[in-house]
């Protein structure tokens, strides 16, 4: 151990400001990098999920429309 | 010779392979960086000239080495994407660029904070510092190009050409301290075999270096997986993957 007390450790022999500035900014940048990386992954997955849901809904709506139009066409055929 | 490598050009296989690597890289980087940083801050001796400001060295030098190393990796990926049309190489280049930019910024900022007590100035327009600043701009340009086009293949081509042209900057950074008279000190660690520093400083440095290397590998793997999913969003395997929450 190079330091005798916590105060000495924080002071870093008059270089405390520069040392802690370096370690602080490095930690901050790395944490920010990891967080943006994780949030980007999540948002991309969510985006694809939403697109799939939208596609499924559209498909269902198209099916329903086709069924009703079929019904209408058969009913018009029967009346004529 | 390339046969064993070939399956990894398949996005699905790469995705699952990197997924298996992730937990090990997390553990390794926490272990190495944890011991390395504690050693560097508490137990490594102060420099006889620079005092405790020398502790910045344990962040500054690994960050600077990685800023160049990641660039070389990105340029190689860009080259293989342009020459052999490997789509995954584009994805890996896009994954590397932001990580490299972050480490370039760390190298510049810690360098400034080290320069102030040692040289008396935060910044000076000398060869080493200026070329490293250009490296940051190159990274930012590559990131911007990757995001500038809706078509990822086109974006990868544009960014790839920029990163290949910018690769000329890497030897300039590396040899700037020898080619020009600069304030920046010469290299202390990269002399093969005989590093010109004390062993009680060299060991924490190695721990920090490899800790940062595994941290970088971890973040790049994470980003690479996101890039794969983005580029293969229409594939059935991505659809099933997105719909089921990942099993751990």
Topology:
The complex is a heterodimer of chains A (80) and B (248).
Chain A: H1 6-11, H2 16-79
Chain B: H1 11-43, H2 57-84, H3 87-119, H4 127-148, H5 152-166, H6 169-179, H7 199-231, H8 236-243
Helix pairs in contact in B: 1-7, 2-3, 2-5, 2-7, 3-4, 3-5, 3-7, 4-5, 4-6
How far apart are the first and last residues' alpha carbons of chain A, in Å?
100 Å
Structural class of chain A: mainly alpha
Low-confidence stretches of chain A: none
Write down the overall mean pLDDT of chain B: 88
Count helical runs of chain B. Answer: 8
Residue share in β-strands of chain A: under 5%
Main sheet overview of chain B = none
Give the total of domains of chain A. 1
CATH topology of chain B: Four Helix Bundle (Hemerythrin (Met), subunit A)
Give the largest chain-chain interface (CB within 8 Å): A-B, 32 and 39 residues
Radius of gyration of chain A using CA atoms only: 32 Å
Tell me the count of domains of chain B.
1
Question: Assembly type of the shown chains?
Answer: heterodimer
Order of helices and strands of chain A: HH
Low-confidence segments of chain B: none
| Helical content band of chain A | over 70%
Q: How many whole angstroms does the radius of gyration of chain B measure?
A: 20 Å
- Proportion of residues in helical segments of chain B: over 70%
């Amino acid at each position: 151990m190079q330091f005798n007390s916590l105060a000495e450790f924080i002071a870093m022999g008059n270089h405390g400001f520069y040392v802690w500035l370096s370690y602080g900014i490095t930690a901050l940048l790395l944490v920010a990098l990891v967080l943006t990386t994780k949030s980007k992954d999540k948002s991309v997955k969510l985006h694809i999920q939403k697109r799939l849901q939208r596609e499924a809904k559209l498909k269902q709506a198209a099916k329903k429309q086709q069924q009703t139009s079929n019904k209408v066409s058969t009913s018009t055929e029967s009346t004529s | 010779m390339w046969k064993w490598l070939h399956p990894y050009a398949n996005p699905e296989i790469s995705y699952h392979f990197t997924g298996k690597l992730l937990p090990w890289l997390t553990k390794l980087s926490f272990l190495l960086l944890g011991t390395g940083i504690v050693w560097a801050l508490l137990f490594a001796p102060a420099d006889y000239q620079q005092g405790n400001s020398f502790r910045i060295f344990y962040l500054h030098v690994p960050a600077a080495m990685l800023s160049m190393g990641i660039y070389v990796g990105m340029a190689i990926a860009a080259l293989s994407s342009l020459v052999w049309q490997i789509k995954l190489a584009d994805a890996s280049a896009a994954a590397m660029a932001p990580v490299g930019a972050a480490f370039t910024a760390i190298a510049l900022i810690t360098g400034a904070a080290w320069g102030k007590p040692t040289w008396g100035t935060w910044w000076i327009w000398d060869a080493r510092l200026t070329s490293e600043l250009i490296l940051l701009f190159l990274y930012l340009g590559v990131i911007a190009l990757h995001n500038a086009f809706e078509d990822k293949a086109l974006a990868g081509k544009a960014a790839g050409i920029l990163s290949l042209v910018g690769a000329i900057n890497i030897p300039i950074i590396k040899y700037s301290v020898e080619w020009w008279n600069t304030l920046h000190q010469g290299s202390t660690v990269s002399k093969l075999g005989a590093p010109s520093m004390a062993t009680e400083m060299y060991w924490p440095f190695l721990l920090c270096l490899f800790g940062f290397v595994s941290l970088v590998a971890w973040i790049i793997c994470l980003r690479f997986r996101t890039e794969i999913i983005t580029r293969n969003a229409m594939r059935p395997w991505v659809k099933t993957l997105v719909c089921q929450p990942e099993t751990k």
